[in-house]
Amino acid sequence: MTDFQAAEEDKLFLRAVGRTMRVLSAFHHASGPLSLSEIATRAELDRSAVQRMVHTLVRLGYMRRSLDDRGYLPGVRLLDHTLDLLRLDPVVQKATPVLLELRKTVRERVDFSLYDETRLVYALRMQSKRETFYATLVGHSVPTFCTAGGRAVLSALSDDAARAVVMRSQLHKFTSKTVNDPEGILALIAQARSDGYAVVVDEFVQGEVAIGVAVAGRDGVPLGAIHVAGSLSEWTRDAFVRHAAPVAAEAARAINGSL
After folding, report:
1. DSSP letters along 194-231, please?
2. Alpha helix (H) ranges present in the chain?
3. pLDDT tens digits, one per residue of 100-120
4. What own/partner pairs with CB < 8 Å and gap ≥ 24 does 45-49 have?
5. With contact defined as beta carbons under 8 Å apart, do 34 and 43 qualify?
6. What angle do the packed helices 78-88 and 90-106 form, to 10 degrees?
7. Taking CA 168 as the corner, what is the angle to CA 208 and CA 225, rounded to the nearest 5 degrees?
8. Which of 20, 62, 141, 251 could form a disulfide with 119 if both were Cys (CB 3.0 to 4.6 A apart)?
C-alpha cells in the first residue's frame, strides 16, 4: 500500500488535495518535461481529471509549460514552499551556522539531511571543489541503509526500530561494495552506535569516503544527520576518520544542545 492509499483511508483526508499532490509528485525522478498522459500514468489517475488539475496548477503558478511546449514542468511558486520549510524548520535553523563552521574546518563537502524513515532528504548542501550541479541541490534524497548519515540516524533508533526500517527499504546495490544484506547492514548500524558515527567507503558513491553523525531531539528520536565526504584519491579511510569524525560529532552535539 502506498502512502497516498494509506492516507485515503483517513476520514478527514481530502481526496482532491491528495490527488493534486499525486500530480505534483509525478515529477519525482523525471528526466524532463512530462505530457498529460505521462503525468496521468505516473500519478495513477484518470487523464481527464489530471488535465483539470494541471490546468489549475498552471494558472496558480505551481506548474508551467516547458520552453519547447512539449510538456509540463514544476512551477516557480513551489520554491516559495521550499523556502518556507528551510527558514521555519527549527533543526535547519540551528544546523546552518554550525555547518558553516564545520565546512571551514574540514574543507570538504558538508551536508545536512532530514530523516524520513527509509531515506534522508538533503536540506543543506555545502560543496567542495569537486561537486557537480546535481550534488548541490537540496531536496535530493538518499537511502538510509547504505549511506553514512542514514546508518548514523538508524543507530539512534532501537534495534527493533532500525531493523523495521531496513526491512522496508529497497536494498539495491549502488556499487559493487554496497552492503545490502540485512544482517550485515544491522551489524554496521550497531558499529555506528558504538562509535558515535558511521563510516561508508565506496558503498553509495564510487571513490568516496563519508562520515555521518545523527542529530536528535531531546527525546533521543533522530531528526537528521550531518554528512562529511571526501575523495579516496586524497584520503585513506582512517585518515579521513581522524580528520572529520571528531569535529562532525562536536557539530552534532552543538546542534543537539541548541534544540
Report:
1. HHTSEEEESSSSTTEEEEEEEEE-TTS-EEEEEEEEEE
2. 3-7, 15-25, 36-43, 47-60, 78-88, 90-106, 148-155, 159-168, 182-195, 237-258
3. 999 999 999 999 999 999 999
4. 45/19, 49/19
5. no
6. 80
7. 45
8. 141
